[in-house]
Specification:
It comes from Nostoc piscinale CENA21. InterPro entries: DUF309 (IPR005500), TTHA0068_sf (IPR023203). It holds the Pfam family DUF309. This is DUF309 domain-containing protein. By secondary structure, the protein is mainly α. The protein has a single domain, classed as Hyaluronidase domain-like. It is built from 6 helices and 2 strands; from the N terminus they run ααααββαα. The chain has a two-stranded antiparallel sheet with strand order 1-2. Strand 1 and strand 2 form a beta hairpin. Helix 2 packs antiparallel against helix 3 and helix 3 packs antiparallel against helix 4. The radius of gyration is 14 Å and the shape is globular.
């Protein structure tokens, strides 16, 4: 990992945490296109989780579940803390939301019912203690 993450990455973190998921995707995608490993997959994992949350907001529960899983799978190869982000916490929060989405599907709850009647565990990008 490079010693410091680029300023655009931190802009993407702010966008993610403020609920600007589409903007976060655009910001991180621009970094991802130019990146080399191991940052490339790290950016992709976070941006896929951002797109999952964008799908969730637009009541596309299936798309949200698929991208939560794909983004999480990409991030599992990283240590608990990477790039100044607590990866373990992001994975835990994403897994919690994925469980809710899967239960929603099994229980045949509509997306609008889910979004209206539940405090969803929306993931946040938490800074790691060692940055």
């Amino acid at each position: 990992m490079s010693e410091t993450m680029p300023q655009e990455f931190w802009q993407g973190v702010e966008q993610f945490n403020s609920g600007q998921f589409y903007a976060c995707h655009d910001t991180l995608e621009a970094l991802w296109i130019e990146a080399i490993e191991p940052e490339k997959t790290f950016y992709q994992g976070i941006l896929q989780i951002a797109v999952a949350l964008y799908h969730l907001r637009n009541e596309n529960l299936r798309g949200a579940a698929i991208l939560l899983g794909e983004g999480s799978n990409r991030l599992r190869r990283y240590p608990d803390s990477y790039g100044g982000i607590n990866v373990d916490e992001l994975l835990s929060q994403s897994a919690e939301l994925l469980t809710v989405l899967q239960q929603t599907s099994v229980n045949k709850i509509s997306a609008s019912e889910l979004l209206e009647n539940q405090n969803l565990p929306i993931p946040k990008l938490v800074l790691s203690n060692d940055c």
